[in-house]
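Standup notes
- HV: blocked on the assembly model, inputs below
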Amino acid sequence: MPYNFKKTAQKPERFTGGHRMCAGCGAPVVVRTVLRALKPEDHAVIANATGCLEVSSSIYPYSAWKDSYIHSAFENAAATVSGAEAAYVSLKKQGKIPYDTKFIAFGGDGGTYDIGFQSLSGAMERGHDMVYVCYDNEAYMNTGIQRSSSTPKFADTTTSPAGSVIPGKLQYKKDLTKIMAAHGIPYVAQSAPMKNFRDLYEKSEKAIYTQGPAFLNVLAPCPRGWRYDTPIMMELIEIAVDTCVWPLYEVVNGEYHLSYKPKNKRPVEDWLKPQGRFKHLFAPQNRHLIDEFQAYVDKEWDDLLKLCGEK
Amino acid sequence: MAIRERLSGNEAVAFAMRQIDPDVVAAFPITPSTEVPQYFSQFVANGQVHTEFVAVESEHSAMSACIGAEAAGARTMTATSSQGLALMWEMLYIAASMRLPIVMTAVNRALSAPINIHNDHSDAMGARDSGWIQIYNETNQEAYDSLIMAIRVAEHADVQLPVMVCYDGFITSHSVENIMLLEDELVKNFVGEYKPKYSLLDKEHPVSMGMFDLPAFYFEHKRQQAEAIKNAKQVLIDVQNEFAKISGRQYGLFEEYKLDDADIAIVIANSTAGTAKDTVDMLREQGIKAGLLKIRLFRPFPADEIAKALSHVKAVAVMDKAEGFSAAGGPIFVDVRSAMYGKADGVKVINYIYGLGGRDVGVYDIKQVYDHLQKIADSGQVDNLYNYLGIRE
Amino acid sequence: MNEVKKIEEINEDISWRDITPGGVAPWAGGAETFTTGDWRTMRPVLIEDKCTGCLLCWPTCPDTSIIPTDDGKIKYDYDHCKGCGVCVEVCPFDAIDFVEDIS
Amino acid sequence: MGKMIEIRWHGRGGQGAKTASLLLAEALFNTGKYIQGFPEYGPERSGAPLTAYNRISDEPIRVHSNIYEPDYVVVVDETLLASVDVTAGLKETGGIVVNTPKSPEEIRHYLKDYKGKVGTVDAKKISEEELGRYFPNVPMLGAIMAMTGLVEKEQFIKSMEESFHHKFATKPEVIDGNVRALKRAMEEVRIS
């Protein structure tokens, strides 16, 4: 069915207000949109890795989740939900569950790229019918903005601080989306909530209703960690996409498809400038670091275009 | 009609699991428990069970998947040993605290380092305060029986806690011995249907589990959990009495062997208890009043009952197959001695660490312990409180 | 175990006997009963005349506090709106004012 | 009360000494005995010397330790005589059976001055002729049972036949060969 923005607004909300995420946090925006892609009649079991989203959305006795929800630890949302999915398969086979249930895991980049990576890889390989959604805010925000393997190069975090000798994080961001695609699972996509949310909604719908494991990597800005003015979140997401820092694409049964190609690819300064975590790059002596960042983004973009048959 | 069979401990436990027919089993191979999921996956492959078998990529994920499955209302089981149990550590506490009645076979093996695949109780003893109910077992028969009973204890409304059924790696797990098995129907009826109060799969009543507790509630949840494990003692007694009716085998919270008139006694868990019974018989033939108390339910610890059972003895040696590194005795010793304080004060209590990393212990090794106890009983003096059996000095 | 309480009965006065075991919360979406409106220092205010009902602001709210109305526009749930201002920025028609929230 | 009999097996990893001990346990279990069958486990792989044990009794067996003073010893691989002290702790009232074409007298020479019974059987020849492959454990089982006389011969063969039918349910063609190998070993074992 073609995407109808206004119709999606009529679907019931499955993630409520009253959670304790920061004002202007990107994660709940991602969660709301992903869950909106569920058919209203379908029940969902949601697993959540320890992280900002978890501690803020499930403070006893107040749960922001209208579906069934489970948190157990930091590194194992994928394993936890795979157990629930196995229970469903078994009980359904035995005729004890008459209705369809969907399985979705949410983790931040810490719980996904790093500590939860093994459990994620295992669950994907085993082929559970589930979606793993990484809301990627590019650092361990819950514990106070420490670097993760998703943190971009040069970002200033509390464990990769920009100092007089070392200009922030020294390593490039891990390309998890491609790593997940290499698992050979039926559906992998990189997305972001932007404009009329079509991209994220449609990818969520495909991920949820594709039989077998699916992975979504979704950019989720963090005003505290990235140090930008809270209200500009949506603009910042657009800049990430238009600079090709965060390209939108999907990998369907192994085939790469580009979801969006900016008409005018913007320079990375547009992305770096509004964010306090990159402030040190704008000192005159660090110009070459911005050039390096640009060269890296260009190469990655080029590689992606080739993979997508766009070049 | 009971079925006379000969099975290894692992075969017996896998057999029990087939009869229990859990909804989900998630497990990862580790010596010496590997055979349990291995045998069980064959039952799955042959369509003999309804179970969804999840061959996870680690023990941490095994316990995580068990948590997800049990939370989803599935009767869930697993098995592990040693490092596997250690890797599960974080999730053991979470399983217990989320009040999920998972039943696990823990085939006891030493912990690294140095790496060692043989038997001692370091693994399970390390998990003794994780909130799991722990039942230790001497033989394949006892392990089989306990596993079936564990389902009932775990899922009981007054308990709602996971249970760990422990037995010795290789000695019990890989040794083929006689066993009496129950018929499938009998086990099926005994364990009954699993009807959890809350389930993630209950569409009509969606729930959130694994919530974040602020200080206003965490303490209350722990108090509630403490009550649940306290309840497990009476529930186990009831379940064991019921089990005796279908099996003819009556179990207690612990087993007393020639203890009622004993002057000297040892307290011991798992397979070496059998060896020690032979020692007791040998000593009894020599007119020495030796006795034995075999640990069965270790968590919750039946402190009052054990203190009472030992109160008339002159000298007791508590045998630990784990070095607790407290420098004040092994884990069973600490609990037994603490239980006896104020209740059996006249009794001299010493500790022996034995059998670490598969160090074999025979009838005559145990006799040395009784000889030591006899000396203490005769003199009324404890020379050494902490002792090592069979170590090269 | 005692009967399950209502979410509003789960408070700091009740006994350990009366809370749900293991911290299970059988109150799906119960967070709605918890208000976060008092976190706000700035308040988004809809300028009805300028609002075209495009709804572009609605999905961007981290607090599910923009509610589409029957007349095709939106209204605010100020019990939960934390005043982040994302909706203000995203509105193509300048139909949302952002004012200091002094009550 | 029946006396408990303890048997120790010496073989090499991959040769089936462990399987033989389990087969023996099973066969005697089928005759109504209480049994134990357990190998000594280590990280060693195929080829390494391996020990396995049996206990057999008319009463429940409670002891759970290794066997240090066996009544009988079975040596599945003759070459072990050079490297392993196969008669260590072996009771003089018992005996030892070795897989070899040599005579008991020749073998006794390798066994220090062991005074008990010594038996030899050419399990290699028997298994190759009857099974077409080198599987020494079934002939060795036959030989040790002939020496111990733990159960009546016909009863033992019948019990083993049952085990084979169970074990080789998917390849019944090997059952007859195994039964022949077992019977031949029981006949051909030389004991002095």
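- HV (later): unblocked. The beta strands of chain D are 5-12, 34-39, 49-57, 72-75, 95-99, 117-121, 190-191. Chains D and C do not touch (no CB pair under 8 Å).
- Next: hand off to the docking folks.
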